[in-house]
Specification:
five-stranded mixed β-sheet; single chain; alpha+beta; globular; seven-stranded mixed β-sheet; 15 helices
Length: 487
Amino acid sequence: MATAKKDEHACTLDKIISLCKRRGFVYQASEIYGGQAGAWDYGPLGVDFKRNIQNEWWHYMTQLRDDVVGLDSAIFQHHTTWKASGHVDHFSDPMVDCLECQARHRADKLIEDFVAANPDKAPSKPVDTMSHEEMKAYIDANIDCPTCKSKNRKYTAVREFNLMFKTYQGPVADDSHLIYLRPETCQGIFTDFKNIVQSNRMKIPFGVAQVGKSFRNEIIFKNFIFRTCEFEQMEMEYFCKPGTDEETFENWRQYRWNFYLKYGIAEKNLKWHHHDKLAHYAKDAYDITYNFPIGFEEIEGVHNRTDFDLSQHTKTSGKDMNYIDQEDGNKSYTPYVIETSAGLNRNFLAFMCEAYEEQNVGKDGKDDWRTVLHLDPRLAPITVAVLPLMKKDGLAEKAKEIQHMLKEDFVTDYDQSGTVGKRYRRQDEVGTPFCVTVDYDTLDKESKDFDTVTVRYRDSMEQERVKLSELVAFIQKAIKEYKPVVR
């Protein structure tokens, strides 16, 4: 039987990891010491790329809406916050140990990975609805330890592993000084709910958006930056009147779906995953999943949290978290909450994978492959690269002058090393949407192209001459009118 030929030019996770390190997007944390598991450093291009994703999320979620405001709450919250939220008792994953090599595995992921490779051996029910005993029985019957490859299948019982990092504030390490690194950003929004209502005169329905770091003591770290111990969340909690929550939930599902389409994710690469087993706080929950090289995985959750969080903080703190609805006869009620929670690091990886292409641009039947990131210009770490045709004859000086002119409005790069063709390819590989080339006509007062430059488009590789006096406005217009590449 003939087998399908593997596409050697397809996007793979290994290629993304290699590109990220080679071009300064992401490095392994503490690499000189062998690396720190589950931790990554974002390099010069990675910092700007990640910040651009965050800025566009903020623009989409707050600036374009009249009903969402922002917050930046503290990483350290009073330890009772996490008791009230349910994290102390419920925030855990099922863990199992191999008795042969002592490797620890997340039981549900162990099963999911096995089923992905052996779909004919899927369990009779979804993994997220299986009890610990059912997980243990399935693992014992089917799965060799991925670490030591032992076929003896000797495992401990499945038990819960709490994911919160804990430490102590002050010099005394006792329970009265116990403090946690936050596992999610949203609890600060809930504890500040009354402050926001009163200080900003907010009226239901309204939302509060926040971007910040969270920390989870994961059992395993895998797939590059997809699962890490510290990560950034882009969350929004939308407070609404009980009874309107289901409609609000559907509205936010659509709004968040449209975000990814707007910034270049093909709809064929997105899929909804409905939660069969809900978290302790949830009435309904969906994940937006993206088709990574490793398969469809979550990049964002949309949850109906009901009135759980505000009710719990009322009960635990003794402070009334109800809302007085002046537009409904001063009726007092605890608002329901619709949450959208996106992983910034996972968005980074999704946009990177979506944009990546190895494209054959050869002519007359000849192969000529280029690696290009088709990033939306609003996300690209470099917007404009300025390239002198040659380093001599005043071209480099003029190119530097143009770069400094553009810096006020765009993130720029300057490159004079190698042929112009090679410099184009370097910019293509990091997703720079526009290259501005300064040539002899730019300086020649006798030429019809005096005081003009060549603007080269990354996606089409087409070029056109633009007057220097119109260059900023030209690029701004091109960014605004950008259409995602359809592949």
